[in-house]
Amino acid sequence: MTAAPTKPFLRALAGETQTRPPFWLMRQAGRYLPEYREVRAQAGGFLDLCLKPALGCEVTLQPLRRYGMDAAILFSDILLVPHALGQSVGFAEGEGPRLAAIRDMNGLRALDFDGLHRRAEPVYETVRRIRENLDKDFPTTALIGFAGSPWTVACYMVEGQGSKEYMHVKQWAFSDPEGFGQLIDLLVRATVEYISAQIKAGAEAVQLFDSWAGALPVDGFHQWVIKPTRAIVDALRARHPGVPIIGFPRQAGLNLEAYVRETGVDGVSLDPGVPAAWASETLKGVTLQGNLDPVLLLTGGAAMRRGVTELLEAMSGRPFIFNLGHGILKETPPEHVAELTRLLRG
Ligand SMILES: Cc1c2[nH]c(c1CCC(=O)O)Cc1[nH]c(c(CCC(=O)O)c1C)Cc1[nH]c(c(CCC(=O)O)c1C)Cc1[nH]c(c(C)c1CCC(=O)O)C2
């Protein structure tokens, strides 16, 4: 039997209701912090930052030193899995990710599953270093490992970049579900391996980011979001019982209930469009995380305070982790994050 967790973030995921909910912020390490921009400038490219354990560890700890969040999230990116599978991945300055797009079975066959751990090893080393530092300096802060969900990672692998419509990836999924299914299956296996190695290196909980879950119609949502997530959850539970899993099916809309029921996640992260009172009432048996609009944090002042108060009220009396509904925006004044921390800590 696994011992009951003591860290507030892990207690929330074990189903405990707390009067002061634990908090962390998606993208809490990032460009809104001057100390991040400084390390980022030293690192060279963004991918270099993710692959240099000393630097990745440093930027992970930066927001904790300022605000003392209840969880640290490994500094990395969901596109490290395509990189570790041998796909060419780059981050164009100011433009976002650029990948050598995979559009057919030939592209799929060129991926190198066997090289996954070798290419991802620096990420595992970053996890080990972060965990050592937390144990020493932030003993109540939990370490979150993460990966993108297969659907969202496939969106980038097939489009080759971010996109509004996700036309190519959807066309492939609709016209050749068997072939596209092979890409998804490969990503399920890679994600299980990759997350499992993060857990062995010291991650205490994991989050699966499905940022483009909302791009699929209902059948596709079941096939390409729920099923692969369920397969990952089952495999991780078998290997690492007691390590909680949070899913983030962004903009899942009315598919959210099925996602929670059918994937078996311990926690679900809500985007800002999900009514908190509805979620609190309807999504039982799961810990909720979210979902302050990142622009409210950017705005600060009375608007932010009202948003925080309403959210805390809607989530009172049920297991809850305070977070944003999506990543913190780079224009956010660090002082607003300080005020948010004071509001949550009292
Ligand atoms: C879709 C997605 C990506 N990456 C991620 C997602 C899922 C969550 C979401 O929907 O935002 C996840 C991610 N990316 C990053 C983290 C680090 C941990 C954290 O602090 O939350 C996490 C958890 C760092 C990052 N990932 C990226 C940055 C900015 C890079 C820089 O410093 O220049 C950071 C801090 C780059 C990135 N990475 C990605 C994009 C589209 C971009 C460009 C957009 C941007 O520049 O903000 C892919």
From TrEMBL:
Cellular component terms (Gene Ontology): cytosol
Residues annotated to bind substrate: R27, Q28, A29, G30, R31, D77, Y156, S211, H326
MF terms (GO), sorted A to Z: uroporphyrinogen decarboxylase activity
Localization of this protein: Cytoplasm
InterPro entries to which the protein is assigned, alphabetical: UROD/MetE-like_sf, Uroporphyrinogen_deCO2ase_HemE, Uroporphyrinogen_deCOase
Enzyme Commission numbers on file: 4.1.1.37
Metabolic or biological pathway: Porphyrin-containing compound metabolism; protoporphyrin-IX biosynthesis; coproporphyrinogen-III from 5-aminolevulinate: step 4/4
Highest taxon listed in the record's lineage: Bacteria
GO BP term, example: protoporphyrinogen IX biosynthetic process from glutamate
Annotated positions for site Transition state stabilizer: D77
Enzymatic reactions: uroporphyrinogen III + 4 H(+) = coproporphyrinogen III + 4 CO2
Residue span(s) of domain Uroporphyrinogen decarboxylase (URO-D): 144-160
PROSITE patterns in UniProt: UROD_2
Main EC class the enzyme belongs to: lyase
Complex formation: Homodimer.
NCBIfam families in the cross-refs: hemE
Family: Belongs to the uroporphyrinogen decarboxylase family.
Protein purpose: Catalyzes the decarboxylation of four acetate groups of uroporphyrinogen-III to yield coproporphyrinogen-III.
Name of the protein this chain belongs to: Uroporphyrinogen decarboxylase
Native source species: Rhodospirillum centenum (strain ATCC 51521 / SW)
Lineage per the UniProt record: Bacteria, Pseudomonadati, Pseudomonadota, Alphaproteobacteria, Rhodospirillales
